[in-house]
Specification:
Blueprint (H helix, E strand, L loop, with lengths): L1 E2 L5 E7 L3 H12 L4 E4 L16 E3 L10 H18 L4 E3 L2 E5 L4 H13 L4 E3 L1 H7 L10 E5 L3 E3 L1 H14 L3 E3 L6 E5 L2 E5 L4 E9 L5 H4 L8 E11 L13 E5 L4 E5 L7 E5 L5 E2 L11 H14 L6 E12 L6 E5 L2 E8 L9 H13 L17
Parallel strand pairs: 2-3, 2-13, 3-10, 6-15, 13-21
Antiparallel strand pairs: 1-10, 4-9, 5-9, 6-8, 7-8, 11-12, 12-13, 14-17, 14-18, 14-19, 15-16, 16-17, 20-21
Helix pairs in contact: 1-5, 1-8, 2-8
Length: about 375
């Protein structure tokens, strides 16, 4: 699939058209930048980390309060995407976060909410059971509810970003693997199997394949195999949109998150922790099995027992992890014409709409108004 000319000189080349790449191409194209996006598979494929029907979004951020200004901007950009297309990308359900005493989940989110003046409620297990009968917490657990939380629709959002980018003049080259990225004169050469493309700068947003093109990252990234499960609830009414919010529960030995059944596909839930390491992204397979099902089913039987009905589906995906679980968004120290976009570690998708804006800034003017100091590559020096 090719939109526009597939060869020549571009202002910016974007490698990888998942969440971050499609958003970057959109932001570049709407600024009048001559941009090309290159994807090794078909856009919308399920071999990376950007596919599926839902990803959680929340303002109070247990990972670190410094993410809150970025996710605020992400909300604004998701709403703008909806206004431009007439499609519903972001659904607000609220998000319930609960956990064992002293756990990172509730404490971290509470700190972020208080620091940034965000709306939240503290709930005891009895109140959680009254509002969300699907969830049953031990008496000593704590919980908080953020009314602005919800979910974003990845497949739809990526397709909309990509569609608008093409409508605004961007070129898209699919089924094309990038072999290398090389400095060339005042710009960069993107080497393909049968030719090369020249650009003034390049954004590398290749997800779990990013270290193949940015060797400096290889020692700092590792790939976690993740499994998503969909169940047919024993009480479907308790898991429907409106009856259940997005949730995350930090138990004694796992942290599981989930979504109401809003698309008729089943009640979706998954562990936030990995189920094995991958050597390369190409090693990933749709290989979920009985052990994977048993893991989420055990958790559901304890905390959401009416959700542990018949298994409807399982899928695997990849988390690209950093040691500190923060993103990597930066220009290469040795070549600022190359921008690296790896918002990863399992909590990146919600930021795609603002990360696209940020990397478009870096690729065109070399700086951004957004605070990305936490994500610089130099933090590991």
């Amino acid at each position: 699939m090719t939109q526009g000319p597939a060869a020549g000189t571009y202002d910016v080349a974007v490698i990888g058209l998942g969440a971050m790449g499609s958003a970057a191409l959109f932001h570049l194209a709407r600024r009048g930048v001559r941009a090309i996006g290159i994807e090794q598979f078909r856009p919308g494929h399920d071999r990376g980390s950007s596919h599926g029907e839902s990803r959680a979004i929340r303002l109070g951020y247990f990972e670190h309060p410094s993410y809150v200004p970025l996710v605020r901007r992400a909300y604004e950009n998701w709403r703008e995407l909806e206004n431009l297309t007439g499609e519903m990308v972001l659904t607000v359900t609220g998000i319930l976060e609960a956990g064992k005493p002293g756990g990172m989940l509730v404490q971290g989110s509470l700190e972020a909410c208080r620091l940034h003046g965000l709306d939240y409620e503290l709930l005891d297990p009895a109140e959680v059971a009254r509002r969300f009968p699907a969830i049953r917490l031990p008496e000593n657990y704590s919980a908080m509810f953020q009314p602005q939380g919800g979910f974003v629709r990845p497949d739809l959002a990526n397709a909309l970003h990509l569609g608008l980018a093409k409508e605004t003049g961007a070129t898209v080259l699919a089924d094309t693997r990038v072999m290398a990225v090389e400095p060339h004169g005042q710009g960069v050469r993107v080497v393909l199997a049968d030719r090369a493309i020249e650009a003034g700068s390049v954004v590398i947003a290749a997800g779990p394949w990013i270290a193949e093109l940015v060797p400096e990252l290889k020692p700092k990234l590792f790939l976690n195999r993740m499994v998503l499960t969909w169940y047919e609830p024993r009480r479907p009414d308790l898991f429907a949109l409106g009856a259940l919010s997005v949730f995350a529960v930090e138990g004694e030995d796992d942290l599981v998150y989930g979504f109401p059944d809003f698309a008729g596909l089943g009640f979706k839930c998954a562990s936030h922790f990995g189920s094995g390491r991958l050597t390369t992204a190409d090693e990933a397979r749709q290989d979920a099995g009985p052990e994977d099902e048993a893991r989420t089913r055990r958790f559901l039987e304890r905390y959401l027992p009416d959700g542990a009905g018949r298994l409807k589906a399982m899928k695997t995906c990849i988390y690209t992890m950093t040691p500190d679980e923060d993103f990597v968004i930066d220009r290469l120290p040795d070549d600022p014409r190359i921008v690296v976009a790896s918002p990863c570690s399992g909590h990146g998708f919600k930021f795609a709409s603002v990360v696209g804006e940020i990397v478009a800034d870096l690729a065109t003017v070399g700086e951004t108004r957004h605070d990305i100091g936490r994500f610089r590559m130099g933090r590991w020096d």
